[in-house]
Amino acid sequence: MKLIRFGEVGKEKPGVQLENGKRLDVSAFGRDFDEDFFGTDGLEQLAAWLKDNEGSCPVVGQEVRLGAPLVRPSKIVCVGLNYAKHAAESGMAVPKEPVLFFKATSAIVGPNDDVIIPKGSEKTDWEVELAVVIGKKASYVSKEDAMDHVAGYVLHNDYSEREFQIEREGQWVKGKSCDTFAPLGPFIATKDEIKDPNNLHLWLKLNGETVQDSSTSDFIFNVQEVVSYISQFMTLLPGDIISTGTPFGVGLGFNPPKYLKPGDVVELGIEGLGTSKQTAKAYQG
Ligand code: ZN
């Protein structure tokens, strides 16, 4: 099943996308895609409800805006430097255990919303990433059991302000949490749709030119290892997002580095998880 949310900002409704690309409004099911939904068999109940009600669900036009495909979760946990070539382009060593950082959940936007270059930013950069959606509370979970705690997967662009992240003092969170820095979607693909999350093609284009083109088979720490690892330090709640890191080809790695300017168009995709597109705009305020 592919979960979407659609409509105006802040007024999104839940929907599903069918195999033929048609989108249906499932608000009559009565539940939005939030912690409670993922944590109490919402996926199974929705699938059962759809069998009986699909025919009476209103169709959502292709022109309707997509929001992020879930209600704002309790946290976004990101893995840094999880591809060896990306660690090298960042001038950092390949980590011995996963590097973790948070991204503010207020950064979440729809998959095709504009990315706002923050006030004072000159180094706004892109990062295509496979994000995991947690389906069941996870605390001290083993690698072997990790997949039982996964609901599905979603495309994420982990936008990053490199000056805020690296040149300013302290933690990376400052360069990762600006408004619009977490476009999620177009949809969440449930776990059954993705045979092996550790072997998916992922790519990103800047103004039509491919800059990232890799596979999650190059992960240093795979999905099972990352879910298990994070759960040793915090409880992952249903609906939480884990972003698994980006491959080689970010703007920071170019010589000279390449950063976003107003009007730039960023398109990205992951095998089985669709594509998204953001246009860069200057901060106004
Ligand atoms: Zn990242």
Overview in brief:
The protein contains five helices and 19 strands. It has helices at residues 35-39, 42-53, 84-89, 162-167, 223-230, and strands at 2-6, 13-17, 23-25, 59-60, 66-67, 76-80, 99-103, 108-109, 115-117, 124-125, 128-134, 150-157, 160-161, 182-190, 201-206, 209-215, 241-243, 265-270, 274-282. The longest helix has 12 residues, at 42-53.
Radius of gyration: 18 Å
Q: Which architecture of the largest domain does the CATH hierarchy give at level 2? A: Alpha-Beta Complex
Bound molecules: zinc ion
Query: Total number of β-strand segments?
Result: 19
Q: Could you give me the name of the CATH homologous superfamily of the largest domain? A: Fumarylacetoacetase-like, C-terminal domain
Helix-strand string: EEEHHEEEHEEEEEEEHEEEHEEE
